[in-house]
């Protein structure tokens, strides 16, 4: 993969800021970089950190305020935390060379004490994650819909920091487990921070915040033995699920390929809840947020995902990092579904119910901007680990709906940060600090950074001229939604339709995707040890679709039980299929960029040919590598360290030895099993033959992804490989169990 010079590209004004501020000579105590000389004292000038809202292409305005705290150790002396130069970092201070260590050794004590406290609690959910910087650019002025800062002008750019995550696993767990993915975006707008804390699936497991701790307790490792890690395939999760029919719709998303994305760059994101947008006149519409990846929506297959867990537990983290590092910046378009109170009254579902989508056929998705991630963090802990998202962080122009799940979230996030990040001042940790200016009378607390000046820390005041003063209509004004009704614990009636949209999802899937859902239920429920739990899940599925329940039951060796009694007398709503719910609806426009291709080489390989194939793949933005038994002058990675599942396709150039070993066969078989393109040139074809790779699909027609060609036709054959790579994989090859 071609390396860029800096960790973020041309914008990396970090370099230029460094040279203007620090100068070419080394200053005496340069552990901190000063803020850029742009802008004066921040007291009177509005948001100098944001600039004019139109940073140059590729620039992250956020880099500048963060540069204030970035530390560069090059050409510096080692010091203590008090900046005292350390003479000897190898030996503690002792009473004689063989004597006891002296209490006096403040250098040793400081070092060990800091180390002892290096860890903070991990997130109670979404502990495992990866993040990047970038920007959001609005395509248009959305002033008619909202006064939210990112949308006030066409072309306006707002810096963002985005964290992707799994939900159930612990901080060190593997990336490619079956799970929902978090998709949390922090917009550093010029009117304060807005966090759109979403997931890669548009619905959720439960309808009310009251059930969240139960759901999470059920899915996390079981409390008596701490197993299993990062997996829903165990009794407690399915026990809870089987007793919570509102989960039906989400179970289908969870067993679908959405739960095993190929890359964070290749998954959608959703705000899940209905939100409100409010314009400057105070007029409000409802809104659902959608992120759509320009790279298309692509997934792993389960056998592959499970093997990647061992081969590279950091698979998604590495993929995101390497893509950004090589200048292949991931992009998503933001889409809005906008609807009014009048439309809501006619929907066959309740828009406050987070287990329901608004089908695109009912309300089209309007594309309003794009997000580009163009800079990796400098420090995982300082940025990715300490970033604190909160569903309650909104800016003027965005408001909440009464979705009872969302309402519970509004409390939880700030609350959890207080224990995770050690106190009420976590907003002062640089990655969480707004780019817009903060002024209020909140004071003190653990680890306070701001040095608030003056004697006034209350309001109203006359001694400070009434400052900081209320913003009035320029500030956040809650939408004055009329409220009625008695205090009650319960749910609206439409919430009880648990199955109509589950069925909608099912009938909108391709046959391939349906087969994967069936196989996922079989896998998960086979791991469940309690037969009654399996039985109840089948009874729930019986309300969704006959083929689905019969196929899952067959896989479990069980008969189909009577359906679980529905929770409402209303007949189910008969939705027509919604093709956009299939992953295949969004192939993307990336071609083969960032696709990883293995060129298998041996002692006899025609290296000239291998190199020209390599160069051609590189030209198209793919990531080719020469793979063989042992690394050396030719081979870049060995088969044992980069097994088959880490590659999107394989090429055997001409004159590869006619017979391979078990490792090579295994490599080719798994490429085949996982639907990836295989190209064998000249003599290389013998290897495919020896590995018993079929050339035809199960129903007899030629497999477009198994390509055998004469050595002279190498480039033409490579074009066919590229075409299959761009389509992701040959799903038509799949059988259950696999043929090879
Ligand atoms: Fe979260 N969620 N959540 N959640 N959530 C957290 O906040 C919570 C829900 C989501 O990368 C926690 O800072 C409750 C839905 C993401 O740092 C915590 C409920 C959606 C992230 C919390 C929900 C999400 C979190 C844990 C139900 C999709 C990771 C650490 C009432 C729309 C953000 C933290 C990151 C994290 C609570 C449901 C998304 C405990 C109580 C629905 C992406 O506050």
TrEMBL record:
Keywords attached to this entry: Heme, Hydrogen peroxide, Iron, Metal-binding, Oxidoreductase, Peroxidase
Read off the Pfam families from this record. Answer: Catalase, Catalase-rel, Catalase_C
Q: Which residues form the Catalase core domain?
A: 79-467
- Look up the record and name the cofactor or cofactors this protein needs: heme
> Which parts of the sequence bind heme?
123, 163, 212, 409, 413, 420
**EC numbers:** 1.11.1.6
* Cellular component, GO, one term: cytosol
- Tell me which InterPro entries the record gives: Catalase, Catalase_AS, Catalase_clade2, Catalase_clade2_helical, Catalase_core, Catalase_immune_responsive, Catalase_large_C, Catalase_sf
| Region called Disordered, residue ranges | 1-63
Please indicate if the UniProt record lists Protease as a keyword: no
An MF annotation (GO) of this entry:
catalase activity
Catalysis: reaction(s): 2 H2O2 = O2 + 2 H2O
Superkingdom of the source?
Answer: Bacteria
**Catalytic residues of the enzyme:** 126, 199
Q: Report the PANTHER family cross-referenced here.
A: CATALASE, CATALASE-B
Q: What is this protein called?
A: Catalase
Q: Which organism is it from?
A: Duganella sacchari
């Amino acid at each position: 993969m071609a390396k860029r010079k800096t960790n973020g590209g041309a914008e990396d004004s970090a370099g230029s800021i460094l040279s203007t501020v620090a100068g070419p000579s080394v200053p005496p105590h340069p552990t901190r970089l000063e803020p850029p000389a742009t802008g004066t004292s921040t007291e009177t000038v509005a948001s100098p950190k944001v600039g004019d809202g139109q940073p140059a292409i590729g620039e992250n305005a956020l880099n500048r305020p963060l540069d204030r705290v970035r530390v560069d150790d090059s050409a510096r002396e080692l010091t203590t935390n008090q900046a005292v130069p350390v003479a000897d970092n190898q030996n503690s201070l002792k009473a004689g060379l063989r004597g006891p260590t002296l209490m006096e050794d403040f250098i040793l004590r400081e070092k060990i004490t800091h180390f002892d406290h290096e860890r903070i609690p991990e997130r109670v959910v979404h502990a495992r994650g990866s993040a990047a910087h970038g920007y959001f650019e609005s395509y248009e002025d959305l002033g008619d819909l909202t006064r939210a800062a990112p949308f006030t002008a066409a072309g306006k750019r707002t810096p963002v920091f985005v964290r992707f995550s799994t939900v159930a696993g612990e901080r060190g767990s593997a990336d490619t487990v079956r799970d929902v993915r978090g998709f949390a975006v922090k917009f550093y707008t010029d009117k304060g921070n807005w966090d759109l804390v979403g997931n890669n699936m548009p619905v959720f497991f439960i309808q009310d915040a009251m059930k969240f701790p139960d759901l999470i307790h059920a899915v996390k490792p079981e409390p008596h033995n701490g197993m299993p890690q990062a997996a829903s395939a165990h009794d407690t999760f399915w026990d809870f699920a089987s007793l919570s029919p509102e989960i039906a719709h989400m179970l289908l998303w969870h067993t679908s390929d959405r739960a095993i994305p190929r890359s964070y760059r290749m998954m959608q994101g959703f705000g899940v809840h209905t939100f409100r947008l409010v314009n400057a006149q105070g007029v409000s519409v409802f809104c659902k947020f959608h992120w759509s990846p320009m790279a298309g929506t692509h997934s792993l297959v389960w056998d592959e995902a499970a093997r990647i867990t061992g081969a590279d537990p950091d698979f998604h983290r590495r993929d995101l990092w390497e893509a950004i590092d090589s200048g292949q910046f991931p992009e998503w378009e933001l889409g809005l579904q906008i609807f009014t109170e009048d439309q809501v009254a006619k929907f066959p579902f309740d828009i406050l119910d987070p287990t329901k989508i608004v089908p695109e056929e009912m309300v089209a998705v309007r594309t309003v901007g794009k997000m580009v991630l163009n800079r990796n963090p400098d420090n995982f802990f300082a940025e990715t680990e300490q970033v604190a998202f909160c569903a309650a962080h909104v800016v003027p122009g965005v408001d909440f709906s009464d979705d009872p799940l969302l309402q519970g979230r509004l409390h939880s996030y700030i609350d959890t940060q207080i224990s995770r990040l050690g106190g009420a001042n976590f907003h002062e940790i640089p990655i969480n600090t707004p780019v817009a200016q903060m002024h209020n009378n909140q004071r003190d607390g653990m680890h306070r950074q701001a040095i608030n000046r003056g004697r006034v820390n209350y309001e109203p005041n006359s001694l400070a001229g009434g400052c900081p003063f209320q913003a009035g209509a320029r500030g956040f004004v809650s939408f004055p939604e009329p409220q009625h009704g008695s205090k009650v614990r319960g749910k609206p009636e439409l919430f009880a339709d648990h199955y109509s949209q589950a069925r909608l999802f099912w009938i909108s899937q391709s046959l391939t995707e349906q087969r994967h859902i069936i196989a996922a239920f079989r896998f998960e429920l086979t791991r469940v040890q309690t037969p009654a739990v399996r039985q109840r899940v089948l009874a729930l599925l019986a309300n969704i679709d006959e083929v689905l329940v019969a196929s899952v039951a067959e896989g479990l060796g069980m008969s189909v039980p009577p359906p679980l009694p529905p929770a409402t007398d209303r007949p189910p709503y008969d939705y027509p299929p919604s093709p956009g719910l299939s992953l295949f609806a969004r192939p993307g426009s990336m071609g083969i960029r960032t696709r990883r291709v293995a060129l298998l080489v041996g002692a006899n390989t025609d290296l000239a040919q291998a190199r020209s194939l390599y160069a051609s793949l590189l030209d198209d933005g793919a990531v080719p590598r020469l793979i063989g038994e042992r690394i050396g002058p030719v081979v870049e990675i060995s088969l044992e360290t980069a097994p088959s599942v880490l590659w999107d396709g394989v090429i055997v150039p001409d004159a590869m030895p006619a017979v391979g070993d078990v490792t090579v066969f295994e490599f080719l078989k798994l490429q085949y099993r996982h639907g990836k393109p295989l190209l064998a040139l000249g003599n290389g074809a013998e290897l495919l033959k020896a590995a018993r790779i079929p050339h035809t699909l199960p129903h007899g027609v030629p497999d477009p992804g198994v390509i055998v060609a004469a050595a002279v036709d190498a480039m033409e054959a490579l074009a066919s490989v590229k075409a299959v790579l761009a389509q992701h994989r040959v799903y038509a090859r799949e059988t259950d169990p696999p043929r090879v």
